[in-house]
């Protein structure tokens, strides 16, 4: 059976998927659920790039899954994307990796004359079996930050959006893609939009709708592939 590792920063973002596996899957002593021809395990890697890098690396070195699926919520930089929308984050990048010149322009590692994979866009690499179900989703370019933006004019976010035309913001996406691509593990990032990047006001967020939509889509995906 093929192994699918589903990761998220926190358990509440994927509680619906976990409940589905508890009900419809058959658990083994190691925490994997058998569902059709897949063995599926859910792991919370923690919030942020550092925690995700460490916990995901430790997990994949121990288990070597066939596929890694990262789930979560995200803020949106593009006002044309409605709250609650579920998107396929095809590419991601680290917001502040590099330097600024005298004019405040962003210099990534490639522009600084350094050669490193993390200077480029970090791309998803889904397996073909998932494509009929994820391809209809809106495609997004992700921006991974260490601090959630509470202002669309934040210097780092504004520069990155201008340079790369990023659509959404999260705190873990780039770490997942980097680890999986370096270890040659197919991977996919799916997120639902909970809030706009604007002066921070959580009363305007649609967290529940975003989580419900994310979990509903993934449950349907698992039903289709199993």
Describe the structure.
This protein has 226 residues and is α/β, with parallel strands linked by helices. The protein is built from six helices and twelve strands. The strands form two sheets. It has a five-stranded mixed barrel. It is globular and about 60 Å long. The mean pLDDT is 89.
Given as residue ranges, the uncertain stretches (5+ residues, pLDDT < 50) are none
Overall form:
globular
End-to-end Cα distance, whole Å, is 11 Å
Number of strands: 12
**Pairing-aware structural class of the strands and helices?**
alpha/beta
Q: What's the order of the H and E elements?
A: EHEEEHEEEEEHEHEHEH
Average residue-wise pLDDT = 89
Oligomer: single chain
The value of Rg in angstroms is 17 Å
- Give the spatial strand order of the biggest sheet: 5-11-10-6-12
Characterize the largest beta sheet: strand count, sense, and whether it forms a barrel: 5 strands, mixed, barrel
Percent of sequence in beta strands: 25-35%
How many helices in DSSP terms?
A: 6
Tell me the helix content. 25-40%
Q: Secondary structure elements and their pairing?
A:
Blueprint: E1 2-8, H1 15-24, E2 26-27, E3 33-35, E4 38-44, H2 49-63, E5 67-76, E6 86-94, E7 99-100, E8 106-107, E9 122-123, H3 131-134, E10 139-144, H4 155-164, E11 168-170, H5 173-182, E12 187-196, H6 207-225
């Amino acid at each position: 059976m093929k192994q699918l590792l589903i990761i998220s920063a926190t358990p509440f973002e994927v509680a619906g998927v976990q409940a589905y596996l508890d009900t419809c899957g058959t658990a083994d002593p190691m925490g994997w659920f058998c569902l059709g021809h897949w063995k599926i395990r859910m792991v919370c890697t923690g919030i942020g790039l550092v925690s995700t890098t460490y916990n995901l690396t430790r997990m994949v070195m121990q288990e070597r899954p066939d596929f890694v699926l990262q789930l979560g919520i995200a803020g949106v930089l593009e006002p044309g994307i409605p709250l609650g929308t579920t998107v396929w984050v095809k590419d991601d990048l680290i917001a502040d990796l590099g330097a600024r010149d005298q004019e405040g322009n962003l210099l990534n590692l490639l522009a600084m004359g350094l050669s490193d994979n993390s200077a480029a866009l970090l791309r998803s690499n889904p397996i073909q079996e998932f494509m009929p179900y994820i391809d209809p989703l809106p495609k997004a370019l992700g921006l991974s930050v260490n601090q959630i933006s509470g202002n669309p004019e934040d210097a780092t976010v504004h520069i990155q959006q201008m340079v790369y035309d990023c659509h959404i913001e999260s705190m873990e996406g780039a770490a997942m893609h980097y680890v999986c691509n370096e270890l040659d593990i197919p991977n996919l990032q799916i997120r639902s939009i909970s809030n706009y990047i604007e002066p921070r006001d959580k009363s305007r967020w649609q967290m529940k709708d975003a989580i419900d939509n994310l979990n509903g889509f993934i449950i349907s995906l698992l039903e289709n592939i199993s």
